[in-house]
Amino acid sequence: MATFVIAGAGLAGAKAAQALREEGFDGEIVLIGAEAERPYERPPLSKDYLQGRSEREKIYVHPPQWYADNDVDLRLGRRVTRIELGHHLVRLSDGSRQPYDKLLLATGAVPRRLPGPGYYLRTVEDSDALKERFATGAKVLIVGASWIGLETAAAARTAGCEVTVVEPEPTALNRVLGPELGDLFARLHARKGVHLRFGTAAAEITQTGVRLSSGERLTADLVVVGIGAAPEIWLARDAGLDVGHGILTDAALRTSHPDVFAAGDVAEHFHPVYGRRVRVEHWANALHGGPAAARSMLGQDVTHDPIPYFYTDQYELGMEFSGDVEGYDEVVYRGDPDKLEFIAYWLRGGRVVAGMNVNTWDVVDEIQALIRSGAVVDQKELPTG
Ligand SMILES: Cc1cc2nc3c(=O)[nH]c(=O)nc-3n(C[C@H](O)[C@H](O)[C@H](O)COP(=O)(O)OP(=O)(O)OC[C@H]3O[C@@H](n4cnc5c(N)ncnc54)[C@H](O)[C@@H]3O)c2cc1C
Question: How many percent of the chain have pLDDT more than 90?
Answer without folding.
Answer: 99
